[in-house]
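Structure ticket #2291
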Amino acid sequence: MSDSSPSPLTSHFQKDTPRLQLLVLSNGHGEDIIAVRILEELQQQPNPPEISALPLVGQGYAYQGLDIPLIGSVRTMPSGGFIYMDGRQFVRDVQGGLLQLTVSQIKAIRYWVNTQKKSGNRIAILGVGDIVPLIFAWLSGANYGFVGTAKSDYYVRDEVSLLKRKEKGAWWESFSGSVYHPWERWLMSRQRCKAVFPRDSLTAEILKRWTIPAFDLGNPMMDGLEPTIPRPRFYSAHVQKQELTRPFVVTLLPGSRPPEAYANWHQIMIAVCAIMELFSKQEFVGHTSGTVVFLGAIAPSLHLESLRQILQSQGWHPHAEPPIKIPEKNILTLKQKNAYFILSQDAYNDCLHQGDLAIAMAGTATEQFVGLGKPVITIPGKGPQFTYAFAEAQSRHLGESVILVEEPAQVSKVVKSLLSNPDKLQAIAENGVRRMGKPGAAKRIAEYSMDLLWNED
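Resolution: structure written out below.
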């Protein structure tokens, strides 16, 4: 954090001063969750703002736990918010009423602004996501801040130089010196834009080259991930012994959107078979106890029984006691030879913390696992979200923490390589924390927002 950054102030807020009216705009389920984390921290501030929200994509279910009103129209589009990856998805959304929805949302924002101004209230907008909430915030005519969740300069460079890429059109992503294009930087450099909170230190540092009020406060995506039962930490004298007696845990992250997640699951199961064959070989008994646990972090939107049936059709049979502690009563445990399979729908944080590595075909979950300092192996799917293009971009963004393989059967080779290279695992651990940041960002952003958005020029 820069020394020139302002410290949170509360002196503005006197008893006879009207409270700040804050409207939050977010465009996607993941963005909604990040916005909610910041709002929860804002509500804990002295003299918190009165908050309203407008989820621009989907129904905004993440906001339901907060006592704040939603303004304007909300609707789920056919693409589920992934129009940027496929022109056909954009056409489907237009046919589904995207343009009419956009116009009505802009009108709702302006109506909210005008109503608050007529009431004599101080107002501000906080956009969370990509250029869409940023444009809407600018169009509002009010002061605004922006939490940039969608872009990172790690997509195109590391701390030293631009990445060497052969893809046609790759130059376009950073032709002007940043992953944020000139028109996006223009929106972030307006006088009414009081604060920009990029997702990592590298992006914040690059944005500061222009007249952009960028603050390096971390990534709220890493907040709220505390496990119910922390993994035991052993003194150095006991580490080797404990490593030899505990099972090797592979967390499985198939994504959350059906039917895509079910197709991803079939791909992941091929990788599971390859890993089981690897651990059945005598050469790997020296690395762990020889037991491997597959820990499926299954989203509530998926049908657990369908996944169980797939497992049983492949030779897995029910087992009474799981070999590791998962603090949830409703888990499914299955066994096959020297391997265990645990399916859980209500212990997401513990699934992340228990895993030694992950096989992932997901967006946010992959990033969070990497942020905990652990390696992820990804397999490209057929979309609409987790396509090869998405997986390739994700591997650039997260660097050496993500290993992208062409086919699921190749996963076991990567696992073997990682287990034989402790220096690589240490580098991955350091890289993950550097690219995803430390917990507490939501609170820091909330504190700074209270000060920066309050000031009217």
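Closing remark: The radius of gyration is 23 Å.
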